[in-house]
């Protein structure tokens, strides 16, 4: 790129430069002052590369000069940003951490971010995690958003234990996540299962906090789904209860704020905060494309850290396939004491068939198909690229050279692998 394409942007204090990469790439460099992207500080004179589709904000508390290069880049400066509000939220969390630090009978903050889709919930979680790391804390980021989660592939909920700032381009280090397989991209596909997994995840996190003082003090920052009506609302209330949060930030939705004030216990502090004008509203198609991109990244990595997945065949007889959720039996056929809802969380065996093509499968650590499969964190994911009925084999796309377990859980998520496209 020629020198002429460099655009120098001078930012005043408490302003942000919003950048949308419509075509090609953008290169960003901090040349003077101090600035950050979603809470991660920029290193002076280091070039950061952002791919097409990226949407970022370079914020500065004290003023900065930034160089931006890229012909397909749209950028503008805004001094109307809620960053100071987010900083105050962080300061309140830090107060709770200080109390927990002095008194082991207290615990760190537990905060949940809620709001409709595309209001910046994930971004605020990232900012709060980054700010706490910058104070030397080790928070836990919990992601309950099974549609656009940041921790693993779509259809999962999970947590990461954070002790370093998010990489400006790659995000947080998700190499050792705690992941539960939900198997679909909206809680509505199986509400009892969603609820059960939220409780299970909360239990695992509580156990971690009980034995790890840094995690207990660092606290829990929870991202949620953007489904805030009807059953979606109930999922939020249940999640707040399961994680015993003491504060909930509602971004940009007054009614949700009022409903939660009515329905959550009075000790829960509920805050109503604005969304940033920089957040992007994404269409259904864009969301689907982002999910696919997320799975692609799981197998193939990113431009700066590429991964080389394996493709191999496994015999039908070498794997045990299962799914979560069975056909509903009429009440009269249920065993004594069984609840009508139980079919939703029943683990049942599945026979290999061509319907598995392009299916994402979760790898369970279980050795057999049992109800244990449900509550166990998964080892990873594979995709079925082909099913050969004659040879009785599945062709699998996998991050590892061989399957770490033979129990594979079928999800309702599909992914068309690049290698299957001629
Ligand atoms: P969902 O409910 O779909 O998960 P969300 O509420 O978590 O969405 P985010 O993913 O945080 O929303 O934000 C939506 C998009 O807006 C992202 O691409 C993010 O990078 C971008 N974004 C957030 N804040 C800003 C900002 N201040 N300036 C520019 N872009 C921003």
Automatic annotation (TrEMBL):
One Gene Ontology term of the biological-process aspect is:
fatty acid beta-oxidation using acyl-CoA dehydrogenase
GO CC annotation, single: mRNA cleavage factor complex
Q: Which keywords describe this protein according to UniProt?
A: ATP-binding, mRNA processing, Nucleotide-binding, Nucleus
Q: Which residues form the Clp1 N-terminal domain?
A: 10-99
**Residue ranges of the TM segments:** none
Residues annotated as domain Clp1 C-terminal? 307-417
Question: Can you give the residue ranges of the Clp1 P-loop domain?
Answer: 115-301
ATP-binding found in the keyword field = yes
What GO MF terms are annotated? acyl-CoA dehydrogenase activity; ATP binding; ATP-dependent polyribonucleotide 5'-hydroxyl-kinase activity
* PANTHER family, alphabetized: CLEAVAGE/POLYADENYLATION FACTOR IA SUBUNIT CLP1P (PTHR12755), POLYRIBONUCLEOTIDE 5'-HYDROXYL-KINASE CLP1 (PTHR12755:SF6)
**Into which family does the record put it?**
Belongs to the Clp1 family. Clp1 subfamily.
Which function does this protein serve? Required for endonucleolytic cleavage during polyadenylation-dependent pre-mRNA 3'-end formation.
Annotated protein name in UniProt: Protein CLP1 homolog
């Amino acid at each position: 790129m020629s020198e002429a394409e460099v655009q120098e942007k001078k930012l005043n204090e408490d302003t942000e430069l919003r950048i949308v990469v419509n075509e090609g790439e953008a290169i960003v460099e901090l040349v003077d002052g101090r600035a950050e992207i979603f809470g991660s500080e920029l290193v002076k004179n280091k070039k950061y590369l952002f791919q097409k589709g990226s949407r970022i904000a370079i914020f500065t508390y004290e003023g900065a000069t930034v160089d931006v290069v890229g012909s397909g880049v749209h950028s503008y400066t805004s001094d109307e940003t809620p960053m100071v509000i987010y900083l105050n939220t962080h300061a309140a969390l830090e107060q709770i951490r200080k109390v927990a630090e002095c008194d082991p009978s207290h615990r760190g903050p537990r905060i949940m971010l809620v709001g409709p889709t595309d209001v910046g919930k994930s971004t605020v979680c990232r900012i709060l995690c980054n700010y706490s790391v910058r104070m030397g804390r080790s928070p836990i980021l919990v992601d309950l958003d099974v549609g656009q989660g940041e921790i693993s592939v779509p259809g999962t909920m999970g947590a990461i234990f954070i002790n370093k700032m998010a990489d400006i381009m790659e995000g947080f280090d998700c190499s050792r996540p705690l992941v539960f397989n939900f198997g679909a991209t909206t809680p509505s596909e199986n509400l009892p299962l969603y609820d059960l997994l939220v409780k299970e995840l909360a239990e695992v996190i509580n156990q971690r906090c009980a034995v790890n003082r840094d995690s207990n003090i660092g606290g829990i920052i929870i991202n949620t789904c953007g489904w805030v009506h009807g059953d979606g609302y109930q999922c939020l209330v249940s999640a707040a209860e399961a994680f015993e949060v003491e504060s909930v930030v509602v971004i940009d939705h007054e009614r949700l704020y009022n409903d939660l004030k009515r329905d959550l216990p009075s000790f829960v502090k509920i805050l109503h905060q604005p969304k940033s004008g920089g957040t992007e509203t994404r269409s259904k198609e864009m969301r689907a494309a982002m999910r696919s991109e997320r799975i692609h990244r799981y197998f193939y990595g990113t431009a700066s850290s590429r991964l080389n997945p394996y493709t191999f065949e496994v015999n039908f007889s070498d794997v045990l396939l299962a799914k979560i959720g069975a056909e509903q039996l009429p009440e009269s056929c249920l065993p004594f004491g069984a609840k009508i809802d139980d079919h939703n969380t029943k683990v049942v065996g599945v026979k290999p068939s061509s319907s598995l093509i392009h299916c994402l499968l979760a790898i369970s650590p279980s050795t057999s198909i049992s109800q244990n499969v449900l509550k166990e964190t998964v080892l990873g994911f594979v995709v079925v690229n082909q099913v050969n009925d004659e040879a009785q084999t599945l062709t699998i796309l996998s991050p590892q050279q061989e399957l770490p377990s033979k129990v594979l859980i079928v999800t309702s998520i599909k992914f068309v692998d690049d290698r299957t496209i001629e």
